[in-house]
Structures are given as structure tokens and as C-alpha cells.
Design brief:
globular; 2 strands; two-stranded antiparallel ribbon
């Protein structure tokens, strides 16, 4: 097996996609230069999350538990909580758009890539000030529209339509999480595809090749965002985890390009000297 291929296989086994949302949490906490991006949105979004969840649990939790008890029996209390948290996540996601959180996610994503040495990739879509004290302060103005993940009413509607899956005993909650992750996972790399300048055809081909990797990433990201009150924090850390995954993908891509360049040269250098 070729050495570059061996390295790619090793990295994929050592860092499966579902780990990256957790790695994003650690990375975010371990790098204080990202903290200002959280503080800028923390208080309003924290209050918003609390307001939404308190009202949902106050007015909708018990009626939903009573309905779920018909299908789930004693499990209705737990499944009802997941159902309410899912509804809260959908509402908060809609309202977060009003706080321009997507812009903050772009900044987190780009700052992590700059810290990992991918300034050239980021500079394709925004100016990078190399004199900045840290990656966040190196972020300049976008050259084009900066979108981390495209907002889609279709995605929100599908999320709401998937909620009744929680009515299925035992298997309902995992099925809901996986199906939602299947749809949401690829959107976590929307910014990456834009930085690469990928066409729709190339993007769909790549998503198809990484379909299950994106599904597991999206599933874990959704599970984290269902944690009460901490949705905003985990949105930002997931963007950091997404950028860490891109760091690995970029290293693999560059390594593959270098290998493809070296291989023809090696063949040209070889000469058969007949005696």
C-alpha cells in the first residue's frame, strides 16, 4: 500500500467523523482567542434559549407526555422531554437567525482554519490580516457572501415532520436523530465547499462519497444541540469541529495532489539501460 494512502486510512480510523463535534468542544475551550466570538452572542442567546424552553416545558410537556403514554408507557416521560427539546431546538434555530449567528459560525470556522495553517484557503473568500495578534483578529472583510450553513425552511419543516418518529417506542429517538443528522450533516461543510469553489455537481459527488461520515457528524452535532440552554455554545463548538475535520481533509487532499505529481516524475526518471 502506498504511504500516502496508508496515512489517509490511518487518519480516518483514528479520527472518525462522529468524534469531531466532541473535538470541537475541547478545541474551543483550549483556545481563548475564540472566546470573544461566544461572548458577543452569549447573553441574548442564553436568555432566548431559557425563555423558549421554559415556555415549552410549562405549556406543552405534560400534554405531550400524556399522549406519548398511550404508546410508550413509563418511557413517555423521557421521550416527551426529547420531543420538547427537539421542538425547542427548531424554534431556537429559527430565532437564532435573527441574531446573525451564522456570521459568528463563519468566523469560528475560518479562525480555526487559519490557526491550522490554511490561510490560503480562507483568503479565497475573505481578506486575512497577517499582522493580527491571533486568528480571530486576522479575519478581514468577506470578499463574497459569507454563509456557514444555508438557512432552509425545508430543513426546519423536515425537522418538525421527523418529530413524530419519537412516538415509536425505543427505536423512535435514535431514528429521529439519525434521519435529521443525515440531512443536516453535509450542511456543516457548506462553507468548505464554497472556499474550494466546488460546483453543485462536485459538491453532491463529495457528499455522496462521505454520506455516512456526514450522517454521524450531523447526528452527534444534533444531540449536543438538544442539551438545554447550551445550544448556542454547541453550535459554535460544532463549527470548530467541522473546521478540524476540514484540516484533515485538506492535508489528505494536498498529500494526494503531491503524490499524483511525483508519480509521473518517478516514471520519467526511470530508464532501462539494456546491456
Amino acid at each position: 500500500m502506498d504511504n500516502s494512502v496508508r496515512q489517509r486510512v490511518f487518519h480516518r480510523c483514528a479520527n472518525p467523523s462522529w468524534l469531531y463535534p466532541f473535538m470541537g468542544v475541547y478545541y474551543f475551550l483550549a483556545h481563548p482567542f475564540l472566546y470573544p466570538l461566544l461572548r458577543a452572542r452569549l447573553l441574548p442567546c442564553l436568555l432566548l434559549s431559557i425563555f423558549v424552553l421554559v415556555n415549552l416545558f410549562l405549556w406543552t410537556y405534560l400534554p405531550q407526555v400524556a399522549f406519548l403514554a398511550i404508546f410508550h408507557g413509563p418511557l413517555a416521560w423521557a421521550n416527551g422531554a426529547v420531543l420538547v427539546l427537539g421542538e425547542g431546538a427548531a424554534i431556537v434555530a429559527l430565532l437564532f437567525e435573527g441574531f446573525f449567528v451564522d456570521e459568528t459560525l463563519v468566523d469560528v470556522f475560518d479562525a480555526v482554519l487559519i490557526h491550522k495553517g490554511h490561510k490560503a484557503l480562507v483568503s479565497s473568500a475573505r481578506t486575512v490580516d497577517t499582522t493580527g495578534d491571533d486568528p480571530v483578529h486576522q479575519l478581514g472583510k468577506p470578499k463574497t457572501s459569507a454563509i456557514y450553513s444555508p438557512f432552509s425552511f425545508r430543513q426546519i419543516i423536515e425537522f418538525i415532520l421527523f418529530l413524530p418518529l419519537n412516538l415509536i417506542p425505543v427505536a423512535g429517538i435514535p431514528l429521529f436523530l439519525v434521519l435529521t443528522g443525515y440531512r443536516a450533516g453535509p450542511l456543516q461543510h457548506w462553507r468548505y465547499f464554497k472556499l474550494l469553489g466546488s460546483t453543485k455537481k462536485d459538491r453532491n459527488k463529495t457528499i455522496s462519497q462521505r454520506r455516512w461520515s456526514y450522517t454521524w457528524f450531523g447526528t452527534i452535532a444534533l444531540m449536543l444541540q438538544l442539551v438545554p440552554v447550551l445550544s448556542m455554545f454547541f453550535l459554535l463548538t460544532t463549527a470548530a469541529g467541522s473546521a478540524l475535520w476540514v484540516d484533515r481533509l485538506e492535508k489528505e487532499r494536498i498529500s494526494a495532489q503531491e503524490h499524483d505529481t511525483e508519480e509521473p516524475l518517478a516514471r520519467e526518471e526511470y530508464t532501462d539501460d539494456p546491456v
